[in-house]
Amino acid sequence: MHEPLNDILQGVGRTRMLALRRIVPGNGGRVLLKLESENPTGSMKDRMALAMIEAAEADGRLPPGGPVVEYTGGSTGVSLSLVCAVKGHPLHIVTSDAFSKEKLDHMRILGATMQIIPSDGGRMTEQLTRDMIEAARVVAVETGAFWTDQMKNRDQLSAYHAMADEILMQAGGRIDGFVQSVGTAASLRGIAEGLRRRGAPARIVAVEPAESPVLSGGRPGAHKIDGVGAGFVVPLWQERLADHVECVSTDEARNMALRLAREEGLFAGTSTGANVIGALRLAERLQPGATVVTVMCDTGMKYLKTFAA
After folding, report:
1. How many whole angstroms separate alpha carbon 184 and alpha carbon 182?
2. Shared-domain flag, residues 159 and 248
3. Same-domain check for residues 12 and 103
4. For the chain, what is the mean pLDDT?
5. What is the per-residue pLDDT across 189-205, written as a single tens digit (0 to 9) for each?
6. 126 alpha carbon, distance to own chain's centre
7. Are residues 211 and 232 in the same domain?
8. 69 shares a domain with 100
9. Do 192 and 252 share a domain, yes or no?
10. 3-class secondary-structure state, position 292
11. Burial degree of 246 (CB within 10 A; 0-12, 13-18, 19+)
C-alpha cells in the first residue's frame, strides 16, 4: 500500500507502460505505450507544468501568490490550472475555440481566467498560434504576470529527462526506437536527450501533421490534431534532434485513436493516434522483434465531443 499523498502534485509522473497486443508491427516487433493518461489531469503536460512553475518559484521569478499567464491548445493549460490551483497562483489562459471544449471547461473549473482567440473554422493554423502568443505577451507586459512561455521555456526539459529514465527502466534498459509528436518539441527533445545521455541507441522519430509538414521542409497548413503542429519551426526544435520526421494526417490519427479504443481498450486523443502510427512505421523499418516506445499523451475523455461529432 502506498502512503497518502501530501497533495495531488505528488501524483505527477511514474506512469506505467503497456505493450500493445493487437495493433502490432507485421515483423514481430513490439510497441510499448507510456500511459501518460495516468497523470492527475490525464495528460503528460502535468510533468512540464509542474517543472516550469517550480523552477520559477525557486529562483524568484514567481513570488508566492504571483500571477501566471500562458497560451495553450488545452492540455498545457489544464495542467497549469491544476498546478496553480494547488500552489495558489492566479492563472490567465489564452486559448482558442479550435481546441476541445472539454479542455476549456476543465481549465475554467480549475479556476483559470480564460481569453478565447477565434480560429479559422475550428482549425489549427500558424496565424492562430502566433495570435495566441502575442496575446499572452501583452498580458504579461500589462499585468506583470509570470509568462511560462512554453515554446521557449527550457525548465520543462528536466521533467522529460526524468521521463526518459522511467522509459528505460520499464523497457528493460534497451529500446530500439522512440516516437513522439511535436508541439513545442519539449517532450521529444527532453526524452531524446535523456535516452542519449544514458547511452540508449534508440532511433528517434518526430511526428508532425501531414497537412502542415514544416519540420519536413514543407508548407504550413491547417489540421485538427490537438496540441501538435504549430505551423512553424518551434524554438525548442533542433535540426539533429530526430533521426527522421514522420508525417501523419488528421484522418489517419483520428482513425488510429478509434482503433486503440476498440481493439486495445485505450481511449486517447489524435496525437496519440499519430504517435502509434509513427511507432508502427518505425518498427517495420527496424529489425524483426525490435522494441519501439511511444506515448499515450493524454486521455480521450478530453475529446468526447470531438469523437462524437
Report:
1. 6
2. yes
3. no
4. 95
5. 999 999 999 999 999 99
6. 18
7. yes
8. yes
9. yes
10. strand
11. buried
Nearest 5°: the CA angle 60, 63, 69 is: 100
Q: Are 277 and 237 in contact (CB under 8 A)?
A: no
Domain that holds residue 90: 45-147
Domain edge (last residue) among 112, 147, 182: 147
pLDDT for residue 266 is more than 80: yes
- The three cell numbers of residue 124 are 489549427
Instruction: Say whether both 222 and 280 belong to one domain.
Output: yes
d(C-alpha 47, C-alpha 187), whole Å: 10
Summarize the confidence of residues 52-64 as an average pLDDT: 98
Q: Are 89 and 82 in contact (CB under 8 A)?
A: no
* The domain boundary residue, chosen from 92, 121, 147: 147
Q: How confident is the model at residue 109 (pLDDT cuts 50, 70, 90)?
A: very high
Q: How many domains does the chain have?
A: 2
Q: Name the β-bridge partners of 95.
A: 116
Using one digit for the tens of pLDDT, what is the confidence trace for 203-250?
A: 999 999 999 999 999 999 999 898 899 899 999 999 899 999 999 999
Q: How many whole angstroms separate alpha carbon 155 and alpha carbon 87?
A: 18
**Residue 282, C-alpha cell as written in the block:** 518505425
Question: Helix or strand or coil: residue 279?
Answer: helix
| Amino acid, res. 58 | A
Q: pLDDT at position 309, please?
A: 62
Q: Is-contact 204 243, C-beta < 8 A?
A: yes
Using the Cα atoms of residue 198, residue 203, residue 206 and residue 207 in order, give the sign of their dihedral: negative
Q: In whole angstroms, what is the distance from residue 90 CA to residue 2 CA?
A: 32
* Domain presence at residue 224: yes
Residue 3 domain-assigned? no
Going by pLDDT thresholds of 50, 70 and 90, the confidence category of residue 305 is: confident
> Does some domain include residue 1?
no
